[in-house]
Specification:
Elements: E1 8-12, H1 17-28, E2 32-37, H2 40-52, E3 56-61, H3 67-81, E4 86-89, H4 105-132, E5 136-141, H5 154-174, E6 179-186, H6 192-196, H7 203-211, H8 221-232, E7 243-246
Parallel strand pairs: 1-2, 1-4, 2-3, 4-5, 5-6, 6-7
Helix pairs in contact: 1-2, 1-8, 3-4, 4-5
The structure holds nicotinamide-adenine-dinucleotide.
The site of nicotinamide-adenine-dinucleotide has 29 residues, from helix 1 and helix 6.
Length: 253
């Protein structure tokens, strides 16, 4: 996709599967990227790949559950890139797989802190920066599990439903001020997150999860990057408050 020449793009969780694919897609489209990630080595590897592809990338270590670190990330983006045109609030952690009654309180709190409050802290700082420069586009990484429940994922599902609510509300509040706010709802995507959840190493579990999708396969990170770039592009100039499903038919059933 073209149209991002010289645009300044911030991506949280830029070291991970979807974040990395999104950074590379933006770089190929001509954008300059700022990568925030709690795992600085992973973000640096993404930056190396972006640079090797001829793009410009900057990194900063940031835990999105820490508002002060998020403020510093957005300020560093402004310092390094001069402005903020697009922001992809993608950092997230996986479901812990315990049933609700056995879910440790600390797991609940950390999942909500990263996957929901983190998006709020990011949008708060990003909207302030975008208002100063006349507008922009924000994409929050929700999930198909922001639309339906899933056994063993209470905190994750609650957080992702919350991300969609935050997205719609921010979209309404800033619609006339040049800021579009949308979400993407991926199905199961083959990334390190699914590796850690024990899915990709186990062919039977992979097949079982794949079967949940009408397309009978997992998604690829690049397929989510495509949805993100569309929502950030001028092609989506009349799109705001949308939770765009990219789930191989998972929720169509
Ligand atoms: N993989 C899937 O099946 C899937 C499906 C739907 C939605 N998602 C969402 O997509 C997003 C990206 O997931 P992924 O599959 O690429 O996972 P991933 O684990 O490959 O990448 C996530 C990245 O976020 C970073 N991160 C984690 N906690 C952070 C924090 N507190 N602050 C900053 N960075 C942090 C990690 O270090 C990692 O680089 C997440 O929000 C996830 O919930 C993933």
């Amino acid at each position: 996709m073209d149209g991002f020449h010289d645009k300044a793009v911030l991506i949280t969780g830029g070291g991970g599967g979807i974040g990395r694919a999104t950074a590379l897609a933006f770089a190929h489209a001509g954008a300059r990227v700022m990568l925030g990630d709690v795992d600085i080595a992973a973000a640096e590897e993404t930056a190396r790949l972006v640079t090797a592809a001829g793009g410009e990338a900057h990194v900063l270590q940031c835990d999105v559950a820490e508002p002060a670190q998020v403020e510093a990330l957005v300020q560093t983006t402004l310092d390094r890139l001069g402005r903020l045109d697009c922001a992809v609030n993608n950092a997230g952690i996986e479901a812990s797989q315990e049933g609700l009654a056995r879910l440790p309180l600390a797991t609940w709190e950390r999942t909500l802190a990263v996957n929901l409050s983190g998006v709020f802290y990011c949008m708060r700082a990003e909207i302030t920066a975008m208002r100063a420069s006349g507008g922009g586009a924000i994409v929050n990484m929700a999930s198909a599990l922001g639309l339906v429940g899933f056994v063993g994922a209470a905190a994750y599902v609650a957080a992702k439903h919350g991300v969609i609510g935050l997205t719609k509300t921010a979209a309404l509040e800033y619609a006339t001020r040049g800021i579009r706010v949308n979400a993407v709802c991926p199905g199961f995507i083959a990334t390190p997150m699914l590796d850690r959840a024990g899915v990709t190493a186990d062919p039977e579990r992979t097949a079982m999860i794949a079967e949940l999708h009408a397309m009978r396969r997992l998604g690829r990170p690049e397929e989510i990057a495509g949805a993100v770039l569309y929502l950030c592009s001028d092609a989506a100039s009349f799109v705001t408050g949308e939770a765009l499903v990219a789930d191989g038919g998972y929720t169509a059933r």
